Amino acid sequence: MTSATDPHPHTEPASADWPPPAPPTAPPDRAPRWSLPALVAILVLAAVLYAWNLSGSSMNTFYSGAIWAGTKSWKAWFFGSLDPGNFLTVDKPPFALMVMGLSCRVFGFGTWQMMAPQIGAALATIWILHSSVKRVWGHVAATVAALVLALTPITVAINRDNNPDTLLVFLMVAGAALALRATRDERLLPLLGSAACFGLAFNTKLLAGWIALPAVFALYVYASKAPWARRIVNLLLAAVVLAVSSFWWAIAVSLVPAADRPYIGGSTDGSAWDLIMGYDGLGRVFGGEGNGGGGGGGGGFSGSAGLGRMFNDILGGQISWLLPFSAIALVGGLVLCGRAPRTDLKRMALVLWGGWTVLHYVIFATAQGTMHPYYTTALAPGIAALCGGGGVMLLDALRRDRRWAWVLPVAFGVTGIWAIVLLRRASGWNTWLWPVVGVLTVAGIVGMLVLRSGNRARLLTASVAAAAVAALAGPTAYAVSEPFGSTGGGMGGTNPTAGPTTGSGFGGPGGGGNRGGFPGGGELPGGTGQSGRNGQAGGFPGGGEMPGGGQAMPGGGTGELPQQGNGTGSTGTGTGQAPGSTGGTGGTAPGGTAPGATGEAGQRGGMGGGPGGMGGADSELIAYLKKHRDGAKWLLAVSNSQSSAQIELSAREPVISMWGFTGSDNAMTVARLKELVKKGELHYVQIGGGMGGGMGGPGGGGNLSTEVSNWVKKHGTAVKESAYSKSSTSSSTSGTNSSSLYRLDPSDVG
Hints:
Layout: H1 35-51, H2 61-72, H3 74-79, H4 95-107, H5 111-137, H6 139-151, H7 153-159, H8 165-185, H9 188-205, H10 213-223, H11 228-255, H12 272-277, H13 282-286, H14 316-319, H15 323-336, H16 345-366, H17 380-400, H18 407-425, H19 433-451, H20 457-484, H21 603-606, H22 619-627, E1 636-638, H23 641-651, E2 655-657, H24 670-678, E3 684-686, H25 704-715, E4 717-718, E5 741-743
Helix pairs in contact: 1-5, 1-6, 1-20, 2-4, 2-23, 4-5, 5-6, 5-8, 5-17, 6-17, 7-20, 8-9, 8-10, 8-16, 9-11, 10-16, 15-16, 15-17, 15-18, 16-17, 18-19, 18-20, 19-20
């Protein structure tokens, strides 16, 4: 069989029905004139998709709060604390927060200042992938890979958000590209650089940053030209760099006494090592402590675990459009490399990017723990590289060997059929698109089969282009809808997705396309049958209800998660009214100006009281807390991190999250609360509707919240709603008003 990749074919000559290529008119290393403009155009397109209307996009207030804290305290910046008082950290290492925090320290805190490094990293990822693919497969393949990566729907969604995955993918792609260069050029420095990149990726999102490492290891062991002894030494040196760059933060945290550092969010004992091995590490893959939200047999943010997960109603439109094509391109490319030497560059790249894709696919598909749709953005670089490089190999084989004439048409045919299936899932959304995809796919396939022979290269190119346009039409429509459309599949910054809502299941896209609350209608997942962190029914501990089991939200409301407000950029205007909230003034997510913030509340795309509300505390309550703070270090203590971050961003004051993001961190105990109150560092605690846990259920493992709640009620002084609200409900006059806000003073600690 003629190799489409080996520069020295071993057997039969090229097919007689296709003329041999003309001698090159320029040196092989000279780029065609269209290559650089095409790359620039793709980068400009990506920049528009990632940055357009960014001020109106919802950020994840969990990370926004930590970034703001890092601008006020270097200690908070280093640990990744949720507040500048350093009570509790986020549930991940802080490297991404450090990068965004430095930008905000230099340019001021705001959406653009926070997102500039993220967008820069996203564009750099495209450039690095283009460069890496170009060195192996040429400019056409590199351009296709860059375009596919730029237009992947879930990648567009996450690159418009302050979650750490954008920086994670950048570091992993940089590490993979350096590893390929180290293997190709027999150089140690790029290999060490690759290890450093993967180590920093680990400090961005722990074990998720290491998923591609087995592919890098296999590449170097299999394809390096160095003698075995030198290979082993080089790998050992790289392992040292990897260990140092991965564990420096965890070691530094361990060297600081527990009393002098914040509680590490997501851990059970306040240590970084428990976070690495548990909730945010192996727990994401195997389930267990803190990871009841994504796997098992009960569905979740990304649907039930299984090898078909990437194609389900939730994830299909986010990442799977070109998965069939990339799989065929990978297998076909490896077969075409069959007789090439071990050091063949194309085989190296296929091993690397194919291994990258397979590893991420299997882990994401079978993960029993929390699995958000946006995790799958890590699949995009591998899919893009295989579509570009493998696609060019299949095209070359189609031209030169009639035995391969059917492979590329089949790849496009399967891709077109799957695109139609995905588009038809979005009932009523751009119904004209799927027939266009079908017509272009058929026309392209027929053209490839008819025009492959003879001197009709331009017509063949047009046929391939038609099929490629059809393959990219669906993901492009999903991607463009994120910055320019009105529909969206997920919860703003907490669970960003692109395109129309086509799936259901708690936390997954669904329910009419509104971008607020929990996707699927904005309600918390009650009765889903999933295992909670504390072994209870429901996606979150306690059966999925809001803290307090449906009691009134602090300051009013029914206990439903507040929906997105209608904030309009930096003005902070908007209603913010949570659908279904009844009674009380606190049911309104403040979209106006928080006292002392001068228009900061709800500004710049939801950093504060705009999209997502601010945990039920309105501007009147914030004003009251500030007025009666009496020199306390923290303005307030609340049950969970999302609420504390939202209040903090509106008030621009430190707020304690007692139980962390999931409501299960053992951060606040009665003894710790007594200590804070006795020192005068905390006066106000919010219990009742806000005490039960992060997103519902017992905080601190079930018993701590009860102990703290009982102690606060016994020793604290209840603050009536009428003390801070001008429009308190009539229930307060009938004696049924049970305030969730308590005042504590040093004299209350006996």
